[in-house]
Please model this.
Amino acid sequence: MQTLSHSTEEKSGSCSHVRPQEIYLKMLLILLGVLILHLIILILLIVSTAASSWSVGGDRTTDLWYSCMTSNGGYHCTPASNEDWIQAVQALMILSLLFCFFSLIAFLYQLFRLVKGGRFFFTAIFQILASLFVMCGAIIYTVMSPDSPNIHFGYAYVLAWVAFPLCLISGLIYIVLRKKE
Model:
């Protein structure tokens, strides 16, 4: 009986010991995952800001910059309206793109310069602000875009909404993430 309890203690004691290489590998995989998520978000924001299909209907597509129409075999584009709401959406999407890019630069800088045990608060703030900007831009576009039975929201609009929660989650991950040596 005594031998059985002794072997159980040995097994449980050996399971709690984790080698430094395993910790290093896990941390490296977490950092790589966070970096890939950040790059995906940045690509989503670039595509949603630059793509020409926030609203699609029949032979017409509208984005933040141009309203294009297919007629007589040609593709004719005119600049987007000068209304205040579309300019606000343009500004918010550009701000979200810039803040996401700056948070990536801040993450890479903090990755090499942050002290052991430090958190990525600066990166997190920029990423959360980027998520708020994209959310506000998408909400304004949703509320203010003209209603028409033939027009529906396009893929660039959907990508903006997909980028919002991913950006927010990424910012929250940066708050929790600690640098380990």
Notes: The first helix runs from residue 2 to 15. Residues 1-14 have pLDDT under 50 and may be disordered. DSSP finds five helices and five strands in the chain.
